[in-house]
Design goal:
Elements (H helix, E strand, L loop, with lengths): L1 H26 L17 E5 L19 E3 L2 E5 L6 E13 L4 H15 L6 E3 L4 E4 L8 E3 L3 E3 L12 E12 L6 E2 L5 E3 L2 H12 L1
Antiparallel strand pairs: 1-3, 2-8, 3-7, 4-6, 4-9, 5-6, 10-11
Protein name: M73 family metallopeptidase
Pfam families: Peptidase_M73 (PF12389)
Keywords: Signal
Length: 205
């Protein structure tokens, strides 16, 4: 009988222990939540030219002669509230009147290209026709694309009274989390295609 009482007591103790463990697990359950505020940054650039004859329309030059050197200084500025960014430039030269030929414009464009991509300018002409600046810009930084345009001295009478335009487009993309394509010499030659698509989609919104 004594043994039976001991077994019963032991079983009761075991049952109490199980209930006790269950209760302890219940006390350790918990829940909580928090809210994180994330503010997205942005990139912001401005393309300006010094001494604009007609604000908003760029520089206008009249009575230009072959061999003339025109003062023209396009400057890209990364605005003070902007995140770090890479920049690139597109240049489109078009004849708008007269008999200036494609060969004439190619000669002008070649001279400009040599000036833009000269030693230590930081610019590189990629295979996609964009000029890439090979450094990251921080807020407030300014970069000059070129500072003069030299009219080829070899231009002939067919260019007389003709008109041409130099259209410049500046673009920027965030520097964070971007890995541009580079040449063997380490010059930036393209932006990754995925980032370009994202940039274009954002620009349209």
């Amino acid at each position: 009988m004594k043994n039976k009482k001991l077994l019963t007591a032991a079983a009761s103790t075991a049952l109490v222990a199980v209930v006790g463990i269950g209760a302890t697990l219940a006390y350790f359950t918990d829940s909580d939540e928090t809210t994180n505020i994330v503010t997205m940054g942005h990139v912001d650039i401005t393309l300006t030219e010094e001494e604009e004859a007609y604000p908003g329309e760029g520089l206008v030059f009249n009575d230009v002669m072959p061999g003339d050197v025109l003062d023209k200084t396009p400057i890209v500025t990364l605005e003070e509230d902007s995140q770090d960014a890479y920049i690139r430039m597109k240049m489109d030269i078009q004849a708008t009147s007269g008999n200036i030929t494609a060969e004439d414009l190619d000669e002008l464009s070649q001279g400009l290209m040599e000036d833009i991509t000269g030693t230590d300018t930081g610019w590189y002409l990629g295979g996609d026709g964009y000029y890439y600046y090979n450094a990251i810009l921080s807020a407030g930084d300014q970069v000059t694309f070129f500072d003069t345009v030299t009219i080829p001295g070899s231009w002939k009478n067919n260019t007389a009274d003709g008109t041409f335009t130099i259209q410049l487009t500046a673009e920027a993309i965030q520097a964070a989390n971007i890995t541009p394509e580079t040449t063997a010499a380490g010059m930036i030659s393209a932006w990754p295609a995925a980032e370009i698509e994202q940039y274009q989609n954002q620009s349209q919104n």
